[in-house]
Amino acid sequence: MKKWSFALLSLMLIAVLAACGNNKDSDSGADNEAGAPRTVELKVGASPTPHAEILESIKPELEAQGIRLQIVTFNDYVQPNQQLADKQLDANFFQHQPYLDTENKERGFNLVSVAAVHVEPFAGYSKKIKSLDELQDGAKVAIPNDPSNGGRALLLLAKEGIITLKDNTNIASTIQDITANPKNLEIIELDAAMMPRQLDEADLVFINANYALEANLNPEKDSLLIEDLQGNPYANILVAREDNKDADAIKKLAAALNSEAVKTFIKERYQGAVEPAF
């Protein structure tokens, strides 16, 4: 009887020790070392170029601060905001403020800018002509179909005197605001992601810089007309929701994106095709 009691006590002691060991392992999963911060996973949606590349460059810095950055890339401008609003993402990095304003208004989102990071010069490109003087009567011009970027294209055309708008400073201009079109341009509105493919079809194509870079086009070197970066209102921004914009991890991400290391990365990597906005 005593032997059985001793054996039972021994088994109970082993079970208790094993449980303690498991608890210790579980605690170490939250804190790698005594007093070390718990690792937080931050899921950020981004366009592949240059946004995801910039985010990749700050991964080690954030990891050292206890933030594991998960980058989800998108090739469109619709899903990153939808998924952020649906809390499938913690933040996104692909858009400028005028586009965000339109999205919030038209789709009922409550998304906010956290930090301005860089400016991508919007520009017009062509495989068919070498200067704007060669733009013929009835030429096809492709512009993005979202209001903010379509407006950017029209403002550039107006600045060059190719068309006239009701207000040549209104960034929300649409084709309905064209008051004069001397060359009878055929203006085609398409999704921004489709613009590089229009280079074989249209005479002049307006392409956002992220899509231009993916198509091996440099806005500074390859475009026929380009936005002025001075006073440019289209800085690309880190965006979060109203309910998480003040979270510690979001603040650390914003600080990393506005660091001198990122400024150097942008200047060295993109050689003027992308410029820091801070």
UniProtKB/TrEMBL annotation:
Q: How does it sit in the membrane?
A: Lipid-anchor
Which residues form the lipid moiety-binding region (S-diacylglycerol cysteine)? 20
Q: Where in the cell is it found?
A: Membrane
Q: Where is the signal peptide?
A: 1-18
- Entry keywords, A to Z: Lipoprotein, Membrane, Palmitate, Signal
- Cellular component annotations (GO), alphabetically ordered: membrane
By sequence similarity, the record places it as follows: Belongs to the nlpA lipoprotein family.
What protein am I looking at?
A: Lipoprotein
Q: Can you name the source organism?
A: Paenibacillus xylanilyticus
